[in-house]
Amino acid sequence: MVTLRMAARRRGLHAKRNWHVSVFLFLGLTFLVALFALLSLITGKGSDNSDPPKSTTGLCDTPLMYDILLDAGSTGTRVHIFEYNKWRLVGEVYNSTHPGLSQLASDDSANISANLQPLMATAVRAIPEVYHPCTKVTLKATAGLRLLPPEKVEFILRETKKVLRRYPFVVGSVSVMDGDEEGMDAWLTVAYLLGLFDRSAEGTPNSTAKRIATIDMGGASTQLVLQMSPGYTGETQFITSLHFGVTEIPLYTYSFLGLGLRQATLEVLRELTAVERTSFPCFPSRYRHRIDGEGGVSFVENIDGNAQGFGACLRFFHRFINTRSSEHLAALRGGRHVLKFAEGAQSVEIFAFSFFHRLWRLRPADNVTVQYYKELGEQVYSAGGKHNSGTNCMDVAYLYGFLTSGLGLSDKTKLNVPYVLNDVKVTWALGASLLSMEGKVWR
């Protein structure tokens, strides 16, 4: 009887032990399955995305590639999604939001996320899902952030990177770009779209390419880049070389921080005397312009409608340009020398874009010269309200003043003022993408 009881007890203990082992194995297996699923999720959709999944590695080596470039400008944020086939650009998808990230420096991260979300949603839709892990997203901020205090810049860039890591792309650089880099990238965009880098069957650059100059009039800065002509022996302080593919191009390049249209006109308004603030000839009668500054809110207006005039307005910008920093003035003098030499050799085409094109829309014209902006300004002043509103008159006066007082161009100088070339936006973004993708697209 005792033996039977002991045997039964041993069978019970053995069954209980087996039950514990089964539970332990079940829980362990469940944990491993959950861990595997979590790791799969992280490697497929996580925030780092430093390496593409193994299943797409071969796909990332194919000739078809995408690149996402975010332009954090002073007046807005734009996304450019470029598609490449080998080293040739296939097309671009574009979208923009407002305001610029520089205006969100004091806001919380939610506003930065809201600013970027529509742009990244555009990228997700535009790029086939299978290419997401192979595609890099880069954000470059321009003069709007260059003018901010370092702590505000750091906040914006840090929060921006957090937002980008939510998306299934490789997060590249998130930074403030140098002004000279911005100018050279814009020049490269125009040169590439004009075919200056088209290659022969031997793969060499086009030897018959024209020479171009670019003037990128942004909101907070203006970039001047001039392709050097053979035989030039003048000032060399601002001459550098752009290396692209197998080509080295000498360029005169300078970024005029503070001479973008929005920043320059704001500085002119801030420098007005008390009398000039009530009879500012760049504004139409009864227009009142608000200025927010460290000293509080102030206003500039023209209470005397008869005081308005293009010539009177232009004098403010002649004075403004001629009283800039010694380095700005030296760069303008050098630019005038290079342009004069190139014009004499009849070997340069000037491309002026961004705000030059935006104001061109007030009166579109097929053939544009420097004088066009003078005539546009005079027409706007006498338009009787059609375009004589807000800051239009002032803006046109500044453009004309920069071309003449700043760069010394004559009224007869021909200009190209494109918004797109070959269906691609004329900005620095394509040039930056080309240089970033150089190792991949230039084979």
Automatic annotation (TrEMBL):
Catalytic residues in the record: E182
GO biological process, one term: nucleoside diphosphate catabolic process
Pfam families reported for this sequence: GDA1_CD39
Gene Ontology cellular-component terms listed: membrane
Name of this chain's protein: Nucleoside diphosphatase
Organism of this sequence: Trypanosoma brucei equiperdum
UniProt family annotation: Belongs to the GDA1/CD39 NTPase family.
Presence of the UniProt keyword ATP-binding in the record: yes
Alphabetic keyword roster: ATP-binding, Hydrolase, Nucleotide-binding
Binding site for ATP: G219, A220, S221, T222, Q223
Keyword Hydrolase assigned: yes
GO MF entry, a single one: nucleoside diphosphate phosphatase activity
Gene3D superfamilies to which the protein is assigned, alphabetical: 3.30.420.40, Exopolyphosphatase. Domain 2 (3.30.420.150)
